[in-house]
Structures are given as C-alpha cells and as structure tokens.
Amino acid sequence: MTTTHFGFTQVPVEEKVHRVTEVFDSVASRYDLMNDVMSLGIHRLWKRFAIQLSGIQAGNTVLDLAGGTGDLAAKFSKIVGSQGQVILADINASMLKVGRERLLNEGILVDFAQVNAESLPFADNSFDLITMAFGLRNVTDKDAALASMLRVLKPGGRVLILEFSELKITPLKPLYDMYSFKVLPFLGQLIAKDDDSYRYLAESIRMHPNQETLLKMMETAGLEHCDYHNLSGGIVAVHRGYKL
C-alpha cells in the first residue's frame, strides 16, 4: 500500500484528499478570521508582495489555485479589468462556496471552478499567470501539480507559489515551534472550535519542501528562470517560475 504524509501521520494516498477536505470543511467559515489572528494580519502583506512580484497586467488571464475565500482573486480582478479573466479555483467545495459568496457580496465578478491541481481541466497554454497561495503543501502529488500548471500556462507566463517554508533565523526556531504546536491549536479551538485542523496546519508546514527543494522541483517540472523570495525570515516564501 502506497502511503503519504498527512501532517506527521502516514496515511494511504487515496485517504489524504479526504482528510484535507475534512480540515477545510471544518475551518472554511472562520478561515479569514483565523488567518488574521494567526499572522497578526501579516498574511495581507505577504499576499501584497506576491501580487507585486507577479507582473500581472490588464487583460491577463489568471488562474488562482487553492483560491479559497478569494482575497487574491479579488485583487487580480481589479488589475486585469474587463478585458482579462480571473478563475478562482479550489478543490474544496466549502472554501469555494465561501469565496463565491464573499466576492459576489462585494460586487466582484470572477469565474469559479472546483478542480484538483494535479489534473487541471483546462486547455494547454491558457493562462498568463497561475498562483497558488498556501495550498501546495496540501497537495498529495506536488510534482503532478507543477507539471499540470506548466501545461496550462501560456509561453511567457508565470507560476507564483506563496507558501509557508523553512524559518532561516535559527535563534527563533524554538519560539516558532512553541507558537506552531501550542498556540495555533489553542487559537483554533478558541476561534474555530477545531484544534486538530490547526495542529495539522503546523505539521503540514514542517513536512512541506523547503525553499531550495521546491525550487528544484519547479525546475524539474520544466519551469525556467525559477527564483524565490523569503518573507518574515523564511516563515513564508514566494517561488516564481516561467514557461519559455
């Protein structure tokens, strides 16, 4: 039996998708609030930097994978304008529902798609920009997802991955570990009534490929001129690659 990691636990490959679905079904309604509380609002700065790095322009076609509650898609929609297109995509129906309701309430028009990043149902060479913010670590087969992104990316287009990564400030690691494994589950129980999902969050971050490993994975997938930028000392990194 082939297994993979769900946090620190080994589970059958086919079971991971179901477990991740349960996590996001549980936290969807409090997702934005928890992001603000967990990061003290800094996640908004991380996302702003990613948008600036994306090179997005009016008229572009954008696929926002693991788009969740739609904060990135909303900003992309304003930049690409009426001549462009933004697709907010997520594998989780609960998250997609929250994102759809939020954007419609704000009068922001984007397209929506429930998709698995490992096998994107779009034509080759469809998008100028593909983003994935805080979603890649939940994907079972990351290599397949990167290959799928490359296929649907237009020549000259960019993939941008914003994800938790490896803290590079060694003296802060004990404090970061205490926050991750003690404070986050406590906040999850207090605000979202779910400590297990936020314990999984901390574990999934530790199991995710670090900066250099993900860079090599992107290059192996066929993306070129790949680079990354550490934010908050490496707690988060933005990886970028091009299809040439």
List the helices and strands and how they pair.
Blueprint: E1 3-6, E2 9-12, H1 13-27, H2 31-39, H3 42-54, E3 61-65, H4 71-80, E4 85-90, H5 93-105, E5 111-114, E6 127-133, H6 142-152, E7 153-164, H7 173-192, H8 195-207, H9 211-221, E8 224-231, E9 236-242
Parallel strand pairs: 3-4, 3-6, 4-5, 6-7
Antiparallel strand pairs: 1-2, 7-9, 8-9
Overall description:
It is a single chain. By secondary structure, the protein is α/β, with parallel strands linked by helices. The protein has one domain (12-164, 210-242): Rossmann fold. Helices cover 47% and strands 23% of the residues. The protein has helices at residues 13-27, 31-39, 42-54, 71-80, 93-105, 142-152, 173-192, 195-207, 211-221; strands spanning 3-6, 9-12, 61-65, 85-90, 111-114, 127-133, 153-164, 224-231, 236-242. The strands form two sheets. A seven-stranded mixed β-sheet has the order 5-4-3-6-7-9-8, with helices on both faces. A two-stranded antiparallel ribbon has the order 1-2. Helix 7 (173-192) packs antiparallel against helix 8 (195-207). The longest helix is centred in the C-terminal third of the chain and has 20 residues, at 173-192. The radius of gyration is 17 Å and the shape is globular. The termini are far apart. The model has no long low-confidence stretch (mean pLDDT 93).
